Amino acid sequence: VQLQASGGGLVQAGGSVRLSCAASGRTFSNYAMGWFRQAPGKERDFVSSISWGAYSTLYADSVKGRFTISRDNAKNTVYLQMNSLKPEDTAVYYCAAGSYGSSWRQYNYWGQGTQVTVSS
Q1: E strands along the chain, which residues?
Q2: Torsion sign over Cα 70, 73, 74, 77
Q3: What averages of pLDDT result for each successive group of 10 residues across the chain (120 residues)?
């Protein structure tokens, strides 16, 4: 699976951004999809995951209630709607395909990342 993330940019605190991740190659609907993020000097952290049929979603506590993950299997795309953004959300955001869950080890395929910068 090849993954291409997009939608990042510079946004003010309190604003919103929607990330997209387009998949190609293997059957997209066979995989759970996840979003992770990595801030400078920090480890890659789990953000959210969605099961292959969108029946289940999982969020990190730090984004719960502010971020929403969704997917459109007809378009081979997963989305991350990010609302009420905070400066601490600044990071490179990566999408990944694999097994449903919060560990990076559960994901076999990774996109290139898209930068989100939240100014205060």
Answers
A1: 2-6, 9-12, 17-24, 32-38, 44-50, 57-59, 67-72, 77-82, 91-98, 107-110, 114-119
A2: positive
A3: 96 98 89 97 97 96 98 96 98 98 97 96
Query: What residues form DSSP beta bridges with 116?
Result: 9, 91
| 105 phi and psi angles, rounded to 5 deg | -65, -15
Q: What is the rounded CA–CA span in Å between residue 14 and residue 53? A: 31
> What is the CB neighbour count within 10 angstroms for residue 95?
30
Q: What is the pLDDT of residue 99?
A: 97
3-state secondary structure of 5: strand
Token duo for residue 95: 């999408």
